[in-house]
C-alpha cells in the first residue's frame, strides 16, 4: 500500500515537472519568435503611414536617449560623440589613421596575451567571432529605401508647382542650410545637431507651457507677415498651368 502511494506521488511529480518544462520551452520559443520579429514589425508599421505617425514611432524608440530617461545611455552617447568631434575636429585626427591605430593596438594586445599564456601555463584567451548579422542590415536598408522614396515623392510634388508656399519654404530652408554649411563642416554640423537633440527635448519637456505660448504668438505674427507678403507679392505672380487645369 505504501509502495502504491509512493508510485502515485512520483507519477504526479513527474507530470508536474514535464508540464513546467513544457511551459518554459514554449515560453522561451515564443519569446525568441517575438524578439526575432520585433524589428520587422516596427518597420512594417512605419510603411504606409503619415510622416507624423512614423516620426512618433521613432521618437518613442529614442525617447529614453534624447529625454535622458536612461542617463547612462544618454551620457554615453553624448560623451562618445564629443570624443569623436574632439578627435577629428580639434586634434585633426583622420578616420583611416584612427581605425588602423586601433586595430594595431587590439591585435598587439591579443597577440602578446596569447603568447604570454604559454609561459604562465594558462589556456589562451578566447577570441569571440565578430560578424554582422544579415537581418538588421536588411531591415535598415528597407527602412532607408522607404524614407528615400518618400523624400523623392515630396521633392517631385514640390517641383510640380502645386503649392507655392511649400516651394518657398523649402527653398528658404535649403538656403539657410547652405549658409550654415558654409560656416562649418559636416562633422561639426552633425555634432551640433546631436547636442541639440540631447538638450532641446529635455528643455521643452521642462518648460513646455512657456514654449507653447511663445510659439503661438510667433505663429500669429508669421501668419500676419505672410498675409502681407501674399497680398503684395505672391498674388501678383502668374499662376502655372497646373492650377489652371484644376479650375477647369
Verbal overview:
Its main location: endoplasmic reticulum. Pfam families: Reticulon. This protein has 248 residues and is mostly helical. Helices cover 83% and strands 0% of the residues. The protein is built from 9 helices and no strands. The radius of gyration is 30 Å and the shape is elongated.
Proportion of residues in β-strands: under 5%
Count the DSSP helices: 9
Q: Which percent bin holds the helix content?
A: over 70%
Mean pLDDT: 75
- The rounded distance between the terminal residues' Cα atoms is 99 Å
Largest sheet: none
How many runs of DSSP E, i.e. beta strands? 0
The radius of gyration computed from the alpha-carbon positions, rounded to a whole number of angstroms, is: 30 Å
From the spread of the alpha carbons, the general shape counts as elongated
Structural class call reads mainly alpha
Q: What is the ordering of alpha helices and beta strands? A: HHHHHHHHH
Low-confidence stretches: 1-6, 19-29, 45-55, 242-248
Membrane topology: Multi-pass membrane protein
InterPro entries: Reticulon (IPR003388), Reticulon-like (IPR045064)
Main location: endoplasmic reticulum
Pfam families: Reticulon
What descriptive keywords fit this protein?
single chain; mainly alpha; transmembrane helix; Reticulon-like; Reticulon
Set down the secondary structure blueprint.
Blueprint: H1 2-46, H2 51-66, H3 71-90, H4 95-119, H5 134-159, H6 164-183, H7 186-206, H8 208-232, H9 241-247
Amino acid at each position: 500500500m505504501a509502495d502504491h502511494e509512493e508510485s502515485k506521488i512520483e507519477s504526479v511529480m513527474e507530470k508536474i515537472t514535464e508540464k513546467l518544462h513544457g511551459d518554459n520551452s514554449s515560453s522561451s520559443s515564443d519569446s525568441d519568435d517575438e524578439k526575432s520579429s520585433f524589428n520587422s514589425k516596427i518597420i512594417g508599421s512605419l510603411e504606409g503611414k503619415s510622416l507624423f505617425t512614423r516620426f512618433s514611432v521613432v521618437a518613442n524608440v529614442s525617447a529614453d536617449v534624447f529625454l535622458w530617461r536612461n542617463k547612462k545611455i544618454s551620457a554615453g552617447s553624448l560623451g562618445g560623440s564629443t570624443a569623436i568631434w574632439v578627435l577629428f575636429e580639434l586634434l585633426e585626427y583622420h578616420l583611416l589613421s584612427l581605425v588602423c591605430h586601433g586595430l594595431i593596438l587590439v591585435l598587439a594586445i591579443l597577440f602578446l596575451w596569447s603568447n604570454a599564456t604559454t609561459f604562465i601555463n594558462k589556456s589562451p584567451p578566447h577570441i569571440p567571432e565578430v560578424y554582422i548579422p544579415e537581418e538588421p542590415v536588411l531591415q535598415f536598408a528597407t527602412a532607408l529605401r522607404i524614407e528615400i522614396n518618400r523624400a523623392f515623392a515630396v521633392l517631385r510634388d514640390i517641383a510640380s508647382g502645386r503649392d507655392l508656399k511649400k516651394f518657398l519654404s523649402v527653398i528658404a530652408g535649403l538656403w539657410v542650410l547652405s549658409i550654415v554649411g558654409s560656416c562649418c563642416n559636416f562633422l561639426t554640423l552633425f555634432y551640433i545637431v546631436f547636442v541639440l537633440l540631447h538638450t532641446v527635448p529635455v528643455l521643452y519637456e521642462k518648460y513646455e507651457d512657456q514654449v507653447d505660448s511663445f510659439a503661438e504668438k510667433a505663429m500669429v505674427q508669421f501668419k500676419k507677415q505672410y498675409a502681407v507678403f501674399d497680398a503684395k507679392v505672391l498674388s501678383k505672380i502668374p499662376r502655372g498651368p497646373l492650377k489652371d487645369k484644376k479650375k477647369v
